[in-house]
Amino acid sequence: MASTEAINVQRLDAFTTQAQAQLQQLVEDSHWNQLAADWALFFSLGTLYVVRDGGGVIVGSGAVLPMGSSLGDAAPVSWISMILVSPKQRGHGLGRAVFGRCLAQVTAEGRIPMLDATPEGEALYVQFGFEPTWGFTRWRRPPRERVMAHCPAEDSTEHLLQLDSEALGFDRRVLLSGIASRVGSRCVHHADASALLRQGRTAVHIGPMHATEEADGAALLHAVAAAVSDVLVVDVPKGRCLMEAALKADGFTPERSFVRMVLSKGLKLPPTKTEIVQAVAGPEYA
Ligand SMILES: CC(C)(COP(=O)(O)OP(=O)(O)OC[C@H]1O[C@@H](n2cnc3c(N)ncnc32)[C@H](O)[C@@H]1OP(=O)(O)O)[C@@H](O)C(=O)NCCC(=O)NCCS
Questions:
Q1: Ligand 1 contacts CB of residue 90 (under 6 A)
Q2: E-strand stretches of the chain
Q3: pLDDT of 253-286, one tens digit each?
Q4: Structural domains in the chain?
């Protein structure tokens, strides 16, 4: 275990063009899908922590994003994400240090820390007492030369937002509205299924997608895949047979696994209806 005592984790106070470029370099180095607009959202709605090298360049990051109020008398949740370390600096305790700082903020605020972990991240988070809840798989589809159909009708986000708070047990209205209002984002629907599409660095991200009937989610996924020529990614909870059949039929292949983790420490967890979730918003957004 690397010592983290000498590592200086700083709260990012100014979202300068330079900081934005250095943070985005971390995303590119890890082949993740976020855009500068995502960092801007973390900065405006939450807190960013960074570690810099001797020359002042950001080589490690972490984000804390407070979710809106939880349903009933459950404790509020904060999402921890963007735990990224520059490949050349890995293995020296930077990841542990920046994650520890994010966690300290969430704990001090009396909120429940939650996150979606990659396998590398999971090994770190269990050491802080985080426990796995459920998992999902990232699927990717290569680009298509031409599309055969129109995208399903654009919808207001209202139905999606209603299903979203029912599914997760907390309110993400501000966050999802921020993503939905970006250039290139759109909300699509089919029957009872509703989903958000947003531009990413390497692919268009489908999610969150919610539906009370999985079959409606699978039909919406199929319609989006038929209408969008760009590379697509979608994060689907494990065990969704109809969704997985639609993914395979539409040329998606599984890329990596994530596990949703929580450290409740006796706080009351929000009530969830995870069966409504057909695709998550992404590991960085819950
Ligand atoms: C995960 C990551 C942030 C760790 O950063 P780091 O600075 O190398 O981590 P640390 O040196 O602080 O090590 C902390 C712990 O992480 C885990 N870890 C780090 N690299 C790992 C790897 N390649 N495989 C498995 N576990 C790993 C270990 O549990 C390690 O604890 P140990 O030192 O007691 O063995 C870094 O590897 C990274 O940026 N990976 C790509 C992005 C990613 O997956 N981020 C996590 C998102 S959930």
A1: yes
A2: 9-11, 47-52, 58-66, 77-85, 112-117, 131-141, 186-190, 193-198, 204-210, 232-237, 253-262, 277-279
A3: 999 999 999 999 999 999 999 999 999 999 999 9
A4: 9-133 (3.40.630.30), 137-279 (3.40.630.90)
* Pocket of ligand 1 contains residue 80 by CB under 6 Å: no
Ligand 1 atom 5: residue of nearest CA:
95
Element (H, E) at 174: helix 173-180
Give the pLDDT band (50/70/90) at residue 82.
very high
Q: Is 91 in the pocket of ligand 1 (CB under 6 A)?
A: yes
Give residue-wise pLDDT tens across range 30-58: 999 999 999 999 999 999 999 999 999 99
Q: For the residues 219-225, what does the mean pLDDT come to?
A: 96
120 alpha carbon – ligand 1 mean position (Å): 5
The answer to whether the CB of 118 is under 6 A from ligand 1 is yes
